[in-house]
Write a structure and sequence with these properties.
- This protein is of the alpha/beta class and about 200 residues long.
- It is built from six helices and five strands; from the N terminus they run ααβββαβαβαα.
- The protein has a five-stranded mixed β-sheet, sandwiched between helices.
- Strand 4, helix 4 and strand 5 form a beta-alpha-beta unit.
- The radius of gyration is 19 Å and the shape is globular.
- It starts with 11 loop residues before the first helix and ends in a 13-residue tail after the last helix.
């Protein structure tokens, strides 16, 4: 079997403890009757990933792709779970430029406009989340309660499932330019259907 890659810095005991005992957002959500949000960022390269496809017996299929790794579409998304876990929805934003604190702030503003009442948001420890402008914004909006996932544990953030399915949908599309890549990614995310098993942490 092909091995699964994990970070050498990963602390499995700390991750297991977080899931079993320290799941901070769950208790806070129940206490406040808050909406739960799982936030994450990802990037889609113009160098199209490939996946298995059909071809005549004995012939290897060929897909011509661009080779510019620097041309990317960067995405921010949040899986939103209503109080009690009754409904879910996806909020996303795509950018042709690199993500900075400016884009994170714009996304948080959209989140606050979209959701009424208290919000418990969980995201990873990416440096972009720790920018002073971002931290100041969170401090100024007391209905936004922010917690962190343990380091190097992407599998416990259900938004990772959105990226996995979207990248699978765009694999082999071989976009010729950034506009085509942007369209492909937009279409893949728009067609994404949230699976109920993504929210095992909520229950």
């Amino acid at each position: 079997q092909k091995p699964k890659r994990q970070a050498a810095q990963r602390d499995d005991e700390a991750i297991a403890h977080w899931k079993r005992y320290d799941w901070p957002g769950k208790k806070k959500c129940r206490a406040l009757g808050a909406t739960l949000v799982f936030e994450d960022e990802s990037g889609f390269s113009l160098v199209s990933p490939l996946k298995n496809t059909w071809a005549p017996c004995g012939e290897t299929p060929v897909v011509r792709t661009q080779i510019s790794h620097h041309c990317r579409v960067n995405a921010i998304a949040a899986l939103i779970v209503t109080p009690g876990g009754r409904r879910t929805r996806l909020l996303s934003r795509l950018h042709r430029q690199n993500l900075t604190g400016k884009e994170i702030l714009a996304f948080l503003r959209s989140l606050l406009k979209t959701i009424r009442g208290q919000i418990v948001m969980i995201w990873d420890n990416h440096p972009i989340h720790k920018r002073k402008t971002v931290m100041d914004f969170i401090t100024k909006h007391p209905r936004l309660h922010v917690f962190n996932f343990p380091a190097y544990a992407p599998e416990i953030n259900p938004t990772e499932g959105v990226w996995a399915q979207s990248k699978d949908s765009t694999a082999g599309t071989a976009p010729r330019n950034l506009d085509e890549l942007f369209y492909n990614v937009s279409k893949a995310i728009a067609e994404h259907e949230v699976q109920s098993d993504c929210f095992a942490l909520v229950s």
